[in-house]
Amino acid sequence: MINHTVFNALAGVLALGLAAPAAFASADPDPDPVALARDAAAAFGPAVGAQAPDFALPDAGGETRRLADIAGPSGAVIFFNRSLDWCPICIAQTIELQGAAEAFEAAGWGLAVLTYDNTETLARAAERRELTLTLLSDEDSAVIDAFGVRDPIYAEPRHRAHGVPYPVAIAIRRDGVVVAKFWHEGGLGAARGYSVRVSAQEMLSALD
To answer: Is the model's pTM score more than 0.70?
Structure first.
């Protein structure tokens, strides 16, 4: 389980406009973690209330999955993550999500983790970490780009992280409408945030 204390660095409220970096500096010293995650996520990706792009991606077993295949009665929560190969923070978060998968299902939400890893890498991660939740391979970052969440700091094509997304979770209703977005730390570009992640329980509470 990711240590809950790291989330006390988050603050803010849900907004559809660009979140100014200065807002985080002047935030309340004991902010609501989910509120800041929502506020930060408002800066990029499909807006809350907008239609999410559909997709068809292979999972760790090679089966093609669409958004409708993943969604529960309430919809689906897609966690865009960097890598389950070389990113220990991403791996830790995915393990936490595995532990919360039944709670998401009970709340009516399908759950998936999407990375730029190929299917073989995801299969190895699933076996090693005993992961049964849906892991999606966006090897060419086409879906990452369709959602507008690629991290531009890794522009060099030879960089290992070229094509990774910002770590953002997007909750999408069954009709394809985005109902919530959660990014995990303030700062874009060179001030990018990826080490702080909103917890599964905090997100479930926000979606209740």
So the answer is: yes
